[in-house]
Design brief:
Length: 238
C-alpha cells in the first residue's frame, strides 16, 4: 500500500482501542477487507461519530503507519449521506445483520470491484427505501424482505447464485419440509427491488428461508456462520 492513499470504504465494525482511538474494520475499494486505525476520537473536532456507523460509505485518506500493519485514517467524509440507517429501527437492525454477515464472510484482501459496487448500491437502496414512490414500502415501513433479497444477491455476486432451472451445488441445503426455498431463492435472485419487497411472506417463511440461506452460504465459503444479529430480525419480522 502506498504511503498516502485515497479510497472508499464500507464500515463493518468499530472496535475501541485505548482512550481515544478506534479500529475501523471495513471493505476497502482499493484493497478489499482491511482495518484502519482512527485516532483523536473525542479529542479532535475532525473526528465526528455521526458518520461512523455500520455500513457507512466513506471516502478516506489513509497514511501508512511504520509501527503497525494498520494504516491510519488521516481524513474521512461520507461518500453517500445515509440519513435513515441509524434513525430507523428496522433499517438499523438490517444494517447490523448485513455488517455481521460481511464481517464474517469477507476475509481476504483481494479487491473485488463488482462486489464493492453491488454492496454500495444495496446499502443506498436500504437507506432510500420508503422515501419515494419508486421504492415503495407498503404501510410506509415494510422492508421485511430486504435481508432475504440481500442474501440472494450476495450469493449471486459471490459466484454461487442459483441457476435458472434444475439443481445446483448445495441446493439440497435449502430444502424444507414446509417451504419451497429453492423457488423463493430463484424468485428473489430474478426480481427487481420493489417486486422483491412486495413478495408476501409470513414470519415463519422468512425465518426458514433465512436460516437455510445461512447454511447455504456457510457451505460454499467453508465456514460455520453463527450470526447473533439474526435473532433481532426474527423478532422484528416474526
Amino acid at each position: 500500500m502506498a504511503a498516502i492513499q485515497s479510497s472508499r470504504i464500507i464500515v463493518l465494525n468499530l472496535t475501541k482501542y485505548g482512550d481515544s482511538s478506534l479500529v475501523v474494520h471495513c471493505i476497502d475499494s482499493a484493497c478489499g477487507r482491511c482495518s484502519y486505525m482512527l485516532r483523536g476520537v473525542g479529542r479532535s473536532k475532525r473526528v465526528t461519530m455521526g458518520s461512523l456507523h455500520n455500513l457507512a460509505i466513506l471516502d478516506i485518506v489513509s497514511v501508512a503507519n511504520p509501527r503497525s500493519s494498520m494504516s491510519l485514517i488521516k481524513e474521512y467524509e461520507p461518500a453517500v449521506h445515509l440519513s435513515s440507517l441509524r434513525s430507523d429501527m428496522d433499517k438499523n437492525a438490517i444494517a447490523m445483520f448485513i455488517s455481521e454477515l460481511l464481517y464474517r464472510t469477507i476475509v481476504g484482501q483481494n479487491n473485488d470491484e463488482r462486489l464493492f459496487s453491488w454492496l454500495c448500491s444495496a446499502i443506498t437502496l436500504l437507506d432510500a427505501a420508503g422515501k419515494d414512490e419508486d421504492i415503495a414500502k407498503p404501510s410506509g415501513t415494510n422492508i421485511a424482505n430486504f435481508h432475504l433479497w440481500f442474501l440472494a444477491g450476495f450469493c449471486t455476486v459471490m459466484g454461487f447464485g442459483p441457476t435458472r432451472e434444475g439443481l445446483f451445488d448445495g441446493c439440497d441445503l435449502l430444502q424444507s419440509a414446509r417451504f419451497d426455498n429453492l423457488a423463493l431463492l430463484r424468485q428473489f435472485a430474478a426480481a427487481e427491488f420493489p417486486d422483491a419487497m412486495a413478495i408476501p411472506l409470513t414470519g415463519a417463511r422468512r425465518r426458514d428461508f433465512c436460516e437455510r440461506m445461512i447454511r447455504y452460504i456457510s457451505y460454499h465459503l467453508g465456514i460455520n456462520l453463527n450470526l447473533r444479529s439474526l435473532d433481532v430480525l426474527h423478532e422484528l419480522y416474526q
